[in-house]
Amino acid sequence: MRCENTRTLPKLSQKRIGTFFEFARSACEVRCVLASLFLCVAPVYAQETSFTSSTISGLGARNIGSAAMSGRIAAIAGTREPSGKITLFVGAASGGIWKSDDSGTRYRPVFDEQHVQSIGAIALDPKNSKNVWVGTGEAWTRNSVSIGDGIYQSTDGGETWKHVGLEKSERIARVVVDPRNSDTVFAAVPGALWSDSPDRGLYKTTDGGKTWQLILKGANLSTGCTDIKMDPTNPDIMFAAMWDFRRKGWEYRSGGDSPTAPSASGLFRSTDGGTTWTEITPEANQGFPKKPYGRLAVAIAPSNAQRVYAFVESPESALFVSDDGGTTWDKRDKSQWMVWRPFYFANLIVDPKNPDRLFKTDGSLIVSDDGGKSFAVVGGFQGAHGDAHDVWIDPTNTQVVFVGDDGGMWYSYNGGSKWWKGENLPVSQFYHVSLDDNDPYRVYGGLQDNSSWVGDSQYPGGITNHRWENMYGGDGFWMFPDPADPNYLYAEYQGGEIGRVNRYTHEARNIKPRPNYKEKLRFNWNTPIALSPNEKGTIYIGAQFLFRSRDHGQNWERISPDLTTNDPQKQKQEQSGGVTVDNSSAEMHTTIYSISESPKQKGLIWVGTDDGNLQLTRDGGKTWTNVVGNVPGLPKNSWVNWVQASNFNGGTAYAAFDRHTFGDMAPYVFKTTDYGKTWTPLVTAQDPKGVRGYAHVIKEDLVKPDLLFLGTEFGLWVSIDDGKSWAQFKGNHFPAVAVRDLAIHPRDNDLVLATHGRGIWIVDDITPLRALTPDLLKQDVAFVSARPVQQRIEGQGGWANGDAVFVGDNPPDAAVINYYQRE
Fold first, then answer.
1. DSSP 308-337
2. Are 772 and 718 in contact (CB under 8 A)?
3. CA dist., res. 688 & res. 692, Å (int)
4. Residues 530-543: what's their mean pLDDT?
5. pLDDT of the residue at 9
6. pLDDT value at residue 792
7. What are the tens digits of pLDDT across the range 171-186?
8. Quick check: 45 pLDDT over 80?
9. Which terminus, N or C, of the chain has the lesser number of Cβ atoms within 10 Å?
10. What is the residue-wise DSSP string for 63-103?
11. Half-sphere exposure of 386 (CA within 13 A, CB side)
12. DSSP percent split of the chain into helix, strand, coil, nearest 5
């Protein structure tokens, strides 16, 4: 057998055996083949090589979806082509841009190579639809929203992209191209969500993005621009909405600090292309509401530019209509779906041909046919998913209406009366993931506004949407199979609403711990649940106290005092919301956020809180020590996003801290080997070691303690030297999407990624990563170990589903050779 050194291949690669596998009739024979191949090349040493992304990205990753539940859509842009087909660009909240050339039948991602995947706005040039403008950073500012890094332009229909400025904007709500001049573009920038910023307002470029001018600035550092609409008959006339807002970990305000507090929000009008602006006020514009304002939205009827609609959040939130270009106004609808949660739903879309027909996004999509006097529900919690964010109406046939909501894309061909759900966009937003020991194993996880699901890691014919099963409701978070009874699983929705679910009948029993008399328990929006690695069937859940159950949640015992700072100033959620009070568990604070029991030392439990405490007990909860003060250089009150007890040593643990809710997007990751007495920085703001994005999860390998995996808001990083150096994983063009959780399968050695925007991904067999050492990296070429090959009898499964579906990839169906090769 001849072995060749092909230098064009990646550093660490996997190659399927084709002809070899045909002759190998058992896994044993295949392993012998691998062994003989390993002996073909003697180690050849060269100069020392650094550990980089290209070192590991030859390892593939496969997306198993699902697209059944899909995920939040933030922006839509489309055009009807001369062929009759519709070209669509769909911007996911945290899953990049997807393009369809055939009216939504098939999609492909076109933004995966960029540094961020959160999309706020998409605009097509009216003169040339190949010119596409994208504002990054979602503007529907919920607690889990991601961030962007400015504005991008494509001149070839999304095939390639160029970053063209506004890199400090963080989020962009709207982009408008002047129909007279393709180089003149306006960008509405709300700006930073969690901190003050001067980089807010309405920006204009007249040279195609080479330079930008701030043409409308807020009155303070928390006010930005959220909407810009242009008169279709005279583009020099524009309306812009300014919004004063701020989110903290424990409160949120749209407008001022209370329903009557001063706010810098407002609606402005320009008649000279944005050179000067005049605010619309009740004093100068009859019928317009009194201040203070929260979020506003504006729309101009394409068929009648004198018809202007404005939604105004205020103490008397309502829709207002002008028939004289914004000079005077009439108050119209103020029903629930008009005024509910403006920070998440403020968007107005007018029918291109009928000025009286208006869509408003909200928990349910509503439509008016009488100029806003009355509305009817046309899509929401019955016909569609609900929580709509954007609407695209075909200007050539206004019966064609496409909607993006928290459950993906929805299509109507009769003006919104009936809906077809798109099941081909795998942009689901997982928070957490767990695995079982079935063969093949199954994947469990909870998603933003899309409940809790279980699906196959592989299946004959591919992993279709039908192989995923919905098990629990609400916003899904943690989900585990019960290790003591495989007929049951644990799942939860927001605020600690944990249930024990029969996986076959779907019968569920809520087992959430109950408060004592006159007591209030504080459960985080993303309440942590943990299974004991030492006592099969024992589970933990955290409020401000740590609870333990040894009987499947039938009874709970408190095993801690209040482990948080118990700061009363961060417990006023009933006052949260600003102009419109919005009290949900999304702002519940001073809570436990992370739990980890040591598999090496029974009774040793780590607990991290969202207000900056890192607590340790070594006696099963009898005594606790707060060790966060020993973490060097860590700013006070940092969220403990993740704490993990080591798989190898009782005194060793890892902690990932998060400060993005203070406006600090840097990662902070530390390690202790002495029960928290001292901590070694692995990644910090001062020394990020190439890691981008605030840290969500740090995982230690199950076999090699020096092998670490770090999930951040911008992807997955790997270290083979105990955190001294890191490399970003980009296998199979894995995008810079938020990695919220990681799981390693102990039998299959797969690394499973829960992404918040692109579903579940699997890196099949991380055994090669365990073989990487500094000595091996010095070699020119070497074969590295792989897991034993399992030959399966070919199964039958799957069915013809047409083109408008997503099918997740299976692992390779043949043996795999892993090799390392220097570039």
1. EEEEE-STT-EEEEESSTTSS-EE----HH
2. no
3. 7
4. 97
5. 35
6. 73
7. 999 999 999 999 999 9
8. no
9. N
10. EEE--SS---EEEEEEEE-TTSPEEEEEEESSS-EEEESST
11. 12
12. 5, 35, 55
The helix (H) or strand (E) run that includes residue 596 is strand 592-597
The two tokens of residue 297 are: 């939205």
Which tokens hold the place of 46? Answer: 């060269």
* 634, 668 Cβ separation under 8 angstroms: yes
| φ/ψ bin of 382: left (φ > 0), alpha (ψ from -120 to 50), beta (otherwise) | alpha
- Is 453:431 a contact under the CB 8 Å cutoff? no
Structure tokens that stand for 786 in this block: 């792989």
The two three-digit tokens of residue 451, written as one number: 């409940």
**Distant-in-sequence contacts of 395-399, Cβ < 8 A, 24+ apart:** 395/80, 395/302, 395/352, 395/353, 396/80, 397/80, 398/351, 398/352, 398/353, 398/354, 398/357
Residue 73 has pLDDT above 80, yes or no: yes
Q: Are the CB atoms for 274 and 238 separated by under 8 Å? A: yes
Beta bridge partners of 476: 493
Residue 725 has pLDDT above 80, yes or no: yes
Model confidence at 403: pLDDT above 80: yes
Q: Element (H or E) spanning 770, and its range?
A: helix 767-771
Q: Are 548 and 455 in contact (CB under 8 A)?
A: no
Which of 9, 64, 30, 59 lies closest to 767, judged by CA? Answer: 59
pTM of the model: 0.94
Beta bridge partners of 640: 657
Alpha-carbon distances of 29 from 25, 33, 790, 791, rounded to whole Å: 7, 6, 11, 11
DSSP state of 776: H
Q: Which of 56, 59, 48, 94 is nearest to 732 (CA)?
A: 59
Retrieve residue 610's tokens: 């969202």
Q: Where are the domains of the chain?
A: 70-421
Short-list 641, 695, 700, CA closest to 668: 695
Q: Which two tokens stand for residue 661?
A: 């809710």
Strands 408-412 and 401-405: antiparallel
Amino acid at 32: C
Average pLDDT, the chain: 93
How far apart are alpha carbons 145 and 586 in whole angstroms? 12
Residue-level pLDDT at 384: 84
Closest by CA position to 78, among listed 345, 382, 383, 400: 400
Helices (H), 110-155: none
Q: Does domain 70-421 have CATH number 2.130.10.10?
A: yes
In sign, the C-alpha dihedral spanning 686, 689, 694, 699 is negative
Torsion of CA 27, 29, 31, 37, to 10 degrees: -150
Structure tokens at 332: 């119209």
Cα 503 from Cα 43, distance rounded (Å): 51
What six digits make up the tokens of 775? Answer: 């000595």
Residue with tokens 């390392």: 820
CA 798, 804, 805, 809 torsion: positive or negative? positive
